[in-house]
Amino acid sequence: MPSTPSTIGDFAILPLSIPPLPAFPQHAIHYLYVRRNAPKMPTATDARSLFLTNVPVDSTESHLRAVFTTLVGAGRFEGATFEDERKDAYSQGAQSPIDAAQPAHAAKLLQAHGKKRKREDEAAAERAREEEAARLPSTWTRPLRRSGSTAVVLLADEKSVEQVLKAIAKTHKTKKYPAWGGGSGSGGLKIPPLGSVWLKTHNRLSYPDSATLQASVDAFSTLFARREQEAAEIAKRLRNEPDEDGFVTVTRGGRSAPASRNEAEEAKRKMLAKQEKKKEELTNFYRFQLRERKKEEQAELLRRFDDDRKKLEAMRVKRGKFVPEA
């Protein structure tokens, strides 16, 4: 079996030893690729940072801390930033349950009104508690990384970066690879469990008890009803206020809140743009007709000129043969 290369391009290859599990009772190796951090937008900490790719899907900062502690000892690892940490559960375009509790007309009225009412600190805290209670409990104890994702590890200083790269090169000679997950790391560092323990926890959290589920549904319904009431109050207050043109829109069921100045200006701008586009299309159409008409007139003038030229030529020929009587 050919030996594993120690480097590939700018990356140093760090083999991670994955211990056997009951579901897969065989020893496995996962390859982590490490190089100095050199982002397109430099930062002050680049000199003491490392860029990692092919990060395991179950990675956490604790797991990376244990690996680097095994390589260079404790006190060198400061933190890790994963590429998907800034993305929450609704960053892929899904609607948050709290946003879904916002009635459609309430959202429109609040947006049109433009100004949020000032709330006291206690009221804001109460609202935050209500929104938190309306959320369903998470089914994962930690996020699952994308396959082949990246991370940036921040170390204590530049010297630590050199030591880590040298330690990685040394592992290829000694064949003593850092262990990934399982139990405690160096120095008694607690590491979140992997494998079946983690998945069993996820399976248990996927089926919350009826009391927890009922409490979340009740909180969601209360929040929705409260926002419905707020929307009705805003509509009632703005019912008799005219828009910028002095009109009050009347709809089925009574008058509705007028559009805000921004909405009216945006609608007016779109209407003018549509009219201008239509006018331009008509103008271009008439210009096309005008060009065709001019071409036809020019062709007619040329034809008439040619006929007159032929007639003149014929008259000249006829005059040359004319002999007046004596």
TrEMBL record:
InterPro entries the record matches: RRM_Rrp7, RRP7, RRP7_C
PANTHER family: RIBOSOMAL RNA PROCESSING PROTEIN 7-RELATED, RIBOSOMAL RNA-PROCESSING PROTEIN 7 HOMOLOG A-RELATED
Region (Disordered): 101-136
Protein name: Ribosomal RNA-processing protein 7-domain-containing protein
Family that this chain belongs to: Belongs to the RRP7 family.
Pfam families: RRM_Rrp7, RRP7
Regions annotated as coiled coil: 261-315
GO biological process terms, semicolon-separated: ribosomal small subunit assembly; rRNA processing
Domain named Ribosomal RNA-processing protein 7 C-terminal: residues: 205-324
Comp. bias regions, Basic and acidic residues: 119-134
Domain of life: Eukaryota
GO cellular component: CURI complex; UTP-C complex
Keywords recorded for this protein, A-Z: Coiled coil
Stored CDD domains: dRRM_Rrp7p, RRP7_Rrp7p
Gene3D superfamilies: 6.10.250.1770
Start and end residues of each Rrp7 RRM-like N-terminal domain: 10-199
